[in-house]
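<discrete_fold_record>
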Amino acid sequence: MTVPRQSVHVDSPTERRNPRTARIDTLPTVDVLRLINAEDRLVPDAVRDALPQLGVAVDLAVAALSSGRGVHYVGAGTSGRLATLDAAELRPTFDVPDGWFAVHHAGGDRALRDAVEDAEDDEAAGADAMATVRPGDFVLGLTASGRTPFVLGALAAAHDRGASTALVSNNPNTSQPGWLDVLVVVDTGPEAIAGSTRMKAGTAQKLVLTSFSTAVMVRMGRTYENLMVSLRATNAKLRGRTLRILREATGLTQQECSTALTEAHGDLKVAMVHLLSGAEIRRAAAALDSSDGHVRAALGLLNAHAV
């Protein structure tokens, strides 16, 4: 005898029918795409409205990293896959140290490719996933519905372990538990296809994650102006980008920048501080060490010593 699985009614606009797309199945292909695109254009404004709360989450993450702790992403389904992608891209882009970012996806690695039955409904598994969380860490949960048991179980357990916590939800009906530090609601409304939260809700979460992690990297000194000075040059394209970034920052010739990079053993930040300040390579490296790798702070330190 087959036992019926429990069903849950989710009270969220993302589950409702969208009157603007009710006849989408009767339209020519290009009009189907136009309807989807029109819905997608609503997403950035929804993200904009949530920026004050997202800013609090960024500051909590920066505080965690600045004190030697880490940032954890928690998600299920689309949310977990997007979180995994965001974290994976930080290393080549910003050369983030080991331990800065960790991802906990309901169902594990297998769920990145295939749906794992009932994984998102396992609150205990979410709590167990927080075994590596330390006091002072920051944990960011993502769920379109605002109620995913795996995510909420993880956040509650992280709070109990002394971490600060935030939840990103696309459901304006999400209630904020008293222990949750920040609730970031991105109200994207009904999807073009009812309940398909891989669409607008997923797009919004991608924007939130990219904005969140990039802002954290900026605050942690992994950029100088709007240049990626902490990227890891792991291929020919990135090695070319490193040289171009150095030329853009300094206004010097390709030969001058190439020579500086060679003298700095390929370290873009050291070469940049050396060229912008006029300090020798060793002093530039020491200034960066004293300023936790912040190029602007290192330049200020060298200029102060020059006065």
Observations:
- The first strand starts at residue 71 and ends at 75.
- The chain has twelve helices and five strands.
- The chain has a mean pLDDT of 93.
- Residues 136 and 163 are 5 Å apart (CA to CA).
